[in-house]
Amino acid sequence: MSVMMGPLLVGAAEPALVTDFWSAALGAEARRRLLRVCTEQGPKTVKNRVHLDVAVGPGLEGVERLVRLGARVLADHLPGWVTLADVEGNEFCAFPAEPVDGPPARVFAVCTDSDRPEELAAWWAARVGARIGPGPDRTPRWLYGCTGWEGIIWKFVRVDDPRTGPNRWRWSVTARADDLLAAGARLLPDGTLVDPQGNGFSAAEPTHPAG
């Protein structure tokens, strides 16, 4: 099956505010490629099950640049990482690395919560042609080389907390919906496609040139 990953679809009560933050954090070009912000009624109320990992400058220097843009610190796990929230409370993790020229942050991973991450990683790897690698606990749940997300790791993160409502951040793909359904995706009554563990995503049919 040929499935190409597209930008993350970000639900926001104030799309302009969220767009401005991520454009400043990542650079406008990177934001357009990776994040598409859309209107969602109501404020964020629970922890997102999808978030970004970004590389920033060393120590607290890079984190402070994001805070000046409107982010706030949720938890300090240095020297490893810092958990932040954007201007609408969307969680993301900043990992200090080498000095950064240009925008304050660079996306290197997309993280998706799951109580059975190995199963979900295997299902999506078969769809997007990715190589499965081990997470920190040595279980096979990190994807490398996803078509359309080259250079980005897709991490499936083990969690015990149950899903509460649809994902506010969700991914998009280019693929035939019928192929995804035949592989185990489901179509909800409202027309939303979900993967075998209930993560909603958007699928655009591939276009074929005439002739």
From TrEMBL:
Residues 11-94, 110-202 form the Glyoxalase-like domain. It comes from the Bacteria. PANTHER family: CONSERVED PROTEIN (PTHR35908:SF1), HYPOTHETICAL FUSION PROTEIN (PTHR35908). This is Glyoxalase-like domain-containing protein.
